[in-house]
Amino acid sequence: MVTLSEADQKTYEFLLNMKMLKRVLPANMPMEEGGIFVTCSDGDQFDDAYQHLAGCCLTHRAWPRICPPNRMGGAIVIPKNSKIREMRGNAYGDDLITDILALSRIKKTPFVTLFAHAPCAMAKEAGLSLAEELYLLALAKKELKQADAALTEKELGQDNAEGNIKVACFVHIQRLDGLRKTYFFPVGQWQLITSRYPVIHGEQWPPHLSDTVAIDDNSAA
Ligand SMILES: [Zn+2]
């Protein structure tokens, strides 16, 4: 099983300190009709995230009505520029969007929960850091809502129709001590902080946590 890298551990601690990983509040989740659970196919972590979500659902209804259209990597395969799409072929993300929108209509479950998790073997395979996963998670929400709005317009035959689904993002972490945690991920807050500190592939995020000492070219002999 993969574990959190040292760099991802720093990112995780920073996010906790900044209160950007929040306690999940079941009362705020519109789960009267259950929910769509978009997460990674990782069997080491699925049970824990599912149990958390099912527990939220049970505060709204008598049995958990969770629909899981899983893919390796979960919601982070949705964005068009996801490196996992590059590895798997572009249809991999497109068919996930199609599944989510079909489920929301066929099963009449408009609440979609998008999960990213760390450590994630698939993300590691694609060379993605935790910060890059979160960047993709926020983008996944935006692109899914756009696809939903486009489909709704087509279904109703009118422009500017309001979308059919509600989307919330979550992060599942297995800490170095083995404990597993599920957090609500506030996308608006993330966008604010990343407008100041953009996520860059191959670099520590946020940059001030980097141990890398800048090379002073002038000091060269
Ligand atoms: Zn995974």
Describe the structure.
By secondary structure, the protein is α/β, with parallel strands linked by helices. It has one domain: 3-Layer(aba) Sandwich (Beta-carbonic Anhydrase, Chain A). The chain is 40% helix and 13% strand. Strands 2-1-3-4-5 form a 5-stranded mixed beta sheet, sandwiched between helices. The longest helix has 27 residues, at 130-156. It is globular. Residues 212-221 have low confidence and may be disordered. Bound molecules: zinc ion.
Furnish the topology, listing elements before pairings.
Blueprint: H1 6-17, E1 35-38, H2 46-58, E2 66-67, H3 83-88, H4 91-106, E3 111-118, H5 121-125, H6 130-156, E4 166-174, E5 180-184, H7 187-196
Parallel strand pairs: 1-2, 1-3, 3-4
Antiparallel strand pairs: 4-5
The chain binds zinc ion (ZN).
Structure characteristics:
alpha/beta, 221 residues, binds zinc ion, 5-stranded mixed sheet, single chain, 5 strands, globular, Beta-carbonic Anhydrase, Chain A
Q: What are the bound molecules?
A: zinc ion
Helix content: 40-55%
Mean pLDDT: 92
Characterize the overall form.
globular
- Radius of gyration, Cα only, in angstroms? 18 Å
* Neighbour order of strands in the largest sheet: 2-1-3-4-5
Number of strands: 5
Question: Beta-strand level of the residues, as a percent range?
Answer: 5-15%
Count of individual helical segments: 7
Task: Tell me the span between the first and last alpha carbons.
Answer: 46 Å
Largest pleated sheet: 5 strands, mixed
